[in-house]
């Protein structure tokens, strides 16, 4: 579970919150009720580049390449 750092824009209160990716981000300072903003770069929340993978399955199409040309191979050369 990643840790998000928040800092209050009003009172300067900074704290860390353990949240999952599906949790909503905090927007209100628990101390003064002011607006919070996320602080990036100070915690170990890493968006690892190795996680980006795409299913490029269009290069090797199994069907549609060599079908439909029936009778082309029945050429008898004498
Ligand atoms: Zn505050």
From TrEMBL:
Return the Low complexity bias intervals.
58-78
Q: SMART domains of this UniProt entry?
A: CxxC_CXXC_SSSS
TM ranges are none
Which Pfam families does this one have?
Answer: Zn_ribbon_8
Start and end residues of each Putative regulatory protein FmdB zinc ribbon domain: 1-41
Q: Where is this region: Disordered?
A: 54-78
What does the record list as coiled-coil region(s)?
A: none
Under the heading InterPro entries, the entry gives:
Regulatory_FmdB_Zinc_ribbon (IPR013429)
Identify this protein by name: FmdB family transcriptional regulator
Q: Which organism is it from?
A: Mycetocola reblochoni
The opening ranks of the lineage are:
Bacteria, Bacillati, Actinomycetota, Actinomycetes, Micrococcales
């Amino acid at each position: 579970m990643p840790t998000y750092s928040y800092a209050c824009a009003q009172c300067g209160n900074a704290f860390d919150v353990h949240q999952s990716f599906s949790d909503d981000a905090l927007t209100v300072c628990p101390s003064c009720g002011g607006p919070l903003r996320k602080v990036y770069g100070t915690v170990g929340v890493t968006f690892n580049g190795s996680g980006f993978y795409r299913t490029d399955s269009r290069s090797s199409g199994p069907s549609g390449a060599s079908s439909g040309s029936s009778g082309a191979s029945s050429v008898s050369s004498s």
